Amino acid sequence: MVKSVGFLLLALRPKTLTASLVPVVVASGLLWAEGSFNQIWISGFALLSALCIQITTNLVNDYIDFKKGADTDTRLGPKRMTQAGLISERGIMLAAIFFSLLAMAFGIPLVIQGGWVLLLIGVVSLLMAYSYTGGPFPLAYLGLGDLFVIIFFGLIAVGGVYYLHTLTYSLSAFVAGLQVGFLSTVLIAINNFRDMHQDKVVNKNTLAVRFGAQFSKIEILSLFIFSILLGSYWIQKGFIAVAFLPLLSVPLMKNILVGVFKNKPGIIFNKYLAQSALVQVLFAVLMAVGFVVS
Q1: Three-state secondary structure along 64-90?
Q2: Which residue has the higher pLDDT, 26 or 201?
Q3: Which of 37, 144, 150, 245 allows an S-S link to 286, with CB 3.0 to 4.6 Å?
Q4: Chain centroid to CA 268: how far?
């Protein structure tokens, strides 16, 4: 029983869940700076719902990548529970259904608060949790996974929290969403770069498979650069600290880029993947601090 719980926790991919936390942190910081952060429960329920949706996506991905042959014994990344036979196919999908239902439960107060807009966001997000790797048009297998992350873990995640508090949307929420989305996409880009040779065999046509190693390197570099350059927006808005505090994460970004450009795709990329998650959290926390002190 204890082992089964441990395997399930691994299947949730806890190290990736920063992608759900970061948008809430940044959006809450922006709302605080604008004097609109009045109901902390909104951010709390938004975080819980987002976590459950991401977990659902991870579990479905665990199952479908195994069924399609993308996860094998030669996998370079962390062990996947279905492929390793540690959780049954039925068990992993039951867990995915449970977390999707939990996401809906946490989303009920948000729909009451935000109306049909939040209902639409919730429904589409849950559908995309499956469509990321499943269905007739699996986004990850068509090279659309990167765009999916920018939209759902950046623009919609930040914008949704902002809308729930204010019932409006703004250019500031859009810019913050882009910064968060770009940094979240770095994780996907590194992951896909690491797995490009295995993915090619099973026709998982990620951007790395479609355009090659050099493209992946430039993509990762560009995502970091654009996330930084967008800080110029906050300068003209008078949030100077929001533009400059996140620059403290640049040395870690540089370390990741040196490793990615220097090494061929392999197990060492798992280190850069973990470091990119750290960059994401550090950058977001520094943005939020910047909003508070501005």
Answers
A1: HHHHCCCCCCCCCCCCCCCCCCCCCHH
A2: 26
A3: 245
A4: 21
- Residue 275 Ramachandran class (φ > 0 left, ψ -120 to 50 alpha, else beta): alpha
Contact predicate 7/58, CB 8 Å = no
Q: What is the DSSP letter of 38?
A: -
Express each pLDDT in 38-89 by its tens digit.
889 999 999 999 999 999 988 888 887 777 665 555 556 566 667 766 777 8
7 has a pLDDT exceeding 80: no
- pLDDT for res 77: 57
Residue 243: name the closest of 255, 256, 233 by CA: 233
Categorise residue 264: left if φ over 0, alpha if ψ from -120 to 50, beta otherwise: beta
Q: What are the boundaries of each domain within the chain?
A: 39-74+87-137, 168-294
Cα separation, 27 vs 287, whole angstroms = 10
Return d(Cα 195, Cα 117) in angstroms, integer: 37
- pTM to 2 decimal places: 0.91
Sequence-distant (≥ 6) Cβ neighbours of residue 184 within 8 angstroms:
19, 22, 149, 150, 153, 154, 280
pLDDT at position 71 is: 56
* Structural domain 168-294, CATH architecture: Up-down Bundle (1.20)
Task: Give the C-alpha separation, 87 to 186, whole Å.
Answer: 29
Contact present, 74 and 198 (Cβ < 8 Å):
yes
For residue 257, give the DSSP letter. H
Rounded to an integer, what distance in angstroms lies between the CA atom of residue 226 and that of residue 38? 31
